[in-house]
Structure formats: C-alpha cells, structure tokens
Amino acid sequence: MSILEAQKSIISGSITPPGSKSIAHRAMICSFLAGGGEVNGITPSKDITATASAIEALKCKKDTIDCCESGSTLRFMLPVAAALGKSVTFTGRGRLPERPIGEYLRLFGEHGVKCRSKGGLPLTVEGRLTSGEYSLAGDVSSQYVTGLLLALPLLEGDSKIVLTSPLQSKPYVDITVSVMKEYGIEVKEEDNAYFVRGLQEYKKTNYTVESDWSQAAFFLASGAIGGNVSVKGLNPNSAQGDKQIINVLKRFGAELEIKDDTVNIRKSALKGINVNVSDIPDAVPAIAVCAAFAKGKTVITGGERLRFKESDRLESVASNLTKMGINATQTADGLIIGGGEPKAAELCGYNDHRIVMAFSVAAVNCEGVTRITDAESIEKSYPEFFGDLKSLGGRINVIRDR
User: Fold this and answer.
1) CA–CA dist 18, 86 (Å, integer)
2) How many Å apart are CA 60 and CA 5, to the nearest integer?
C-alpha cells in the first residue's frame, strides 16, 4: 500500500485533464464491434486496460473475462458477449464481485441466455441474447442501459428498453447514444424508453476521445478552494454530465470564467448549497470537499447509488471529513456537510481513486501534513493525477510500498 503525504500549497497554473474514461470505454467497444477503426485520445488506466483485455478475450475466444475492478467493463461487456452468443465466465476483484448485476440475471433469463451465478461474480453466460422488450428500473444503474444499448443492434429483431422508474445518471446514457451515432448506430429515445432496430452494423471510424470533465472537477475544486487554475481542453458542448460541475461551483460562489475550451477559476468565498447529484454521482467527492471549505451547510441528495462504488462513497467522504474536523453526516441518499476550516489528518483512501483524488485536493489546502492511504488507487482511472497536481504547485509525496 502506498501513502500520500500532502501539505499546504499554492495551487496555480494550467492543466489539461486526461481523455474521458466513460467515452473511451464506449468507443473501444464500438470499434471492436465495427471490426476496426482507431480510438485516439485514450488515457491508459486500469479500468481502460480491463476493457481492452475483455475485448481481446472475446476476439481470441477465451472462456474467461477478468474485469478487474471495473464496473463499466463488466456491465458493458456482459450483454455484448451475450449478443454475440459467447459462452464465457466473468470474474473480478476488489468490490466488483459484490456490486449489483441482478437486473442482468433477470433480463438474460427472459431473453435466451442461461446464467450461472451465486448472485455476483464469477458469472457464466451461455446462449445468445434474443430481441424484444427489456424492462428495468432506471434508478439502479445507467450502466445497465448502456450495456444493453451497445448489444441490441446486433440482434436479429427490434428491441425496446422500457424504464419502469426515472432514469438516474441519464447523461451517461446520452454519452452512449452519442458515441454509437458516430459509429453509425441509430437509437431512438422515446418516453421512458429507448428503441433499437436490429441487424444494424457498426461502421469503422476513427474516433477521438475528448477530455474528462469528471477528472477536471478535482482541479476546478482546488482552484475554487484556494488557487488560481486554468483547466484546458474541455468541450463545453459535451454530452458528459459532469460538465455540470461548472454550475455547481457557480452556486457555491466560485469565481470562474469560460473561454473557448478553457475554464479559469480562482480562490473564492464559497457558501453552502443544496445540490441533487443523481445525474453527476462521480462529482460528489469533489463537491463534498468544496462544501467542507464553504461557509454554512451543504446538503447533497440523490446519491444513494454511491454506496455501491469502489467504496461506499457516502461513508468514505463522511468519515474523512469528520477526521478533518468537519461536521459531516450521512443520510439515506447523501450527505449534510457543515463547512469550516478542515485540518490536516490521517485519512483512509478506501482503495477508491475518487476518494484519494478528492482528499488530495483537500490536503493541499490544509495547514500541516495530511496522509492518505491507498494512494495507488488513482491508477484505476488517472495514473498521472499526482504528477499533474504537483505541476500546479501541490506539495505532495507518495511513499511507496516497502
């Protein structure tokens, strides 16, 4: 296990965040189904490597796919493998074997695929997925919808995904539809449903992955708390839901300006807000850290699915903020955070990349030395994060395993 040591820093300068992991997963799978085409702008990470390995396993007709700790890899590749009629066992590690896949077990059973599982991983699928109506709740995970959307064009008949409750994290599905369109696949959005025509062909194309708003959120938060930062290469018209971090920061009172593809943000007098995060769950750790430095109370709602990420992020955030002297309380679907002046502390990274990155931002804005465990977990999505934070003036040091 590696430990990050961080102390009060002057954060200033410009940074370009890596390519969007969410978009990269989808483009890689579309390219595979098209039988070729380059995907440019991919930032290597453990999650991206997991998807690349899963694709290679299907190409080589292997009988096991190791998704490592990547929920996206698992939930996207499961229906794709089933649509291709592959008999394969999916495995994983960390918290992934415990993360929900029950909707797939039910839907696959209704549509010609036999599943062998004890409720999680390992999971073996056999048979070929059949077309038709796929009815599922929209408040479990948008990744189910994305996985089905990627797979259904391959089937012989037309299909419809019918949502029995409002779709949470809809921007992630919007990303999927947008990427699929670039590969020649048509998806029609209807009231609480998505219609997908069968026997469509993915077209070979060269695709460039745009910068990641969810990773940009950490640097934007750091600028708002105590720096002067320019985050470059961001698409203001992106389908990424996490671009909403701009509106959230404005509501906190952050002083920022947007010019072309650059967001300039500086130290601001932040104030507490009420915010629903059902469409931007990945931004919650960064939002919570801003709340800790704000004056007054921040109430975060709509984040119940955060309990099923790499860690229980509601618990992880609340626990670390409490250690930093901030009043933070969990609710059923969010957090109540009393802003103040966070203090240096011994923190847990919970083997969760977003927790480590968020509290690194908090740490470089605190007097004293803060230590965060599981520093290596950033390799899951953003291996160069510490180097980029250092380039902005972050006084940090990673103590490697001995």
Assistant:
1) 33
2) 43
- Position 285 scores a pLDDT of 98
pLDDT computed for residue 401 by the predictor: 66
Name the percent of the chain lying above pLDDT 70. 100
Buried b (16+ CB within 10 A) or exposed e, 8-36: ebebeeebbbbbbbbbbbbbbbbbbbbee
Q: 388 pLDDT band (50/70/90 cuts)? A: very high
What number of other Cβ atoms are within 10 A of residue 292's Cβ? 29
Distance CA 197, CA 46 (A): 33
Q: Give the rounded percent of residues in the chain with a pLDDT score beyond 90.
A: 96
The two structure tokens encoding residue 399: 């103590």
How many residues does this entry show for the chain? 402
Q: How far is CA 44 from CA 47, 242, 315, 358, 379, in A?
A: 8, 20, 29, 20, 9
Q: Which residues contact 60 (CB under 8 A, 6 or more apart)?
A: none
- Region of 164 (left: φ > 0; alpha: ψ -120 to 50; beta: rest) is alpha
3-state secondary structure of 76: helix
Q: What's the Cα-to-Cα distance from 64 to each of 78, 143, 292, 315, rounded to whole Å?
A: 12, 21, 44, 33
Catalytic member of 66, 242, 279, 282: 282
CB atoms within 10 A of CB 307: 15
Instruction: Give residue for tokens 């465990």.
Output: 373
- Other CB atoms within 10 Å distance of the CB of residue 340: 16
Cis before 122? omega within 30: yes
Check residue 139 and give its pLDDT: 86
CA separation for the pair 247, 334 (Å, rounded): 19
Residue 402 pLDDT exceeds 70: no
The tokens for 125 are: 């699928």
pLDDT band at 99 (very low <50, low <70, confident <90, very high): confident
Residue 272's pLDDT band, with cuts at 50, 70 and 90, is very high
Q: Catalytic residue at 282?
A: yes
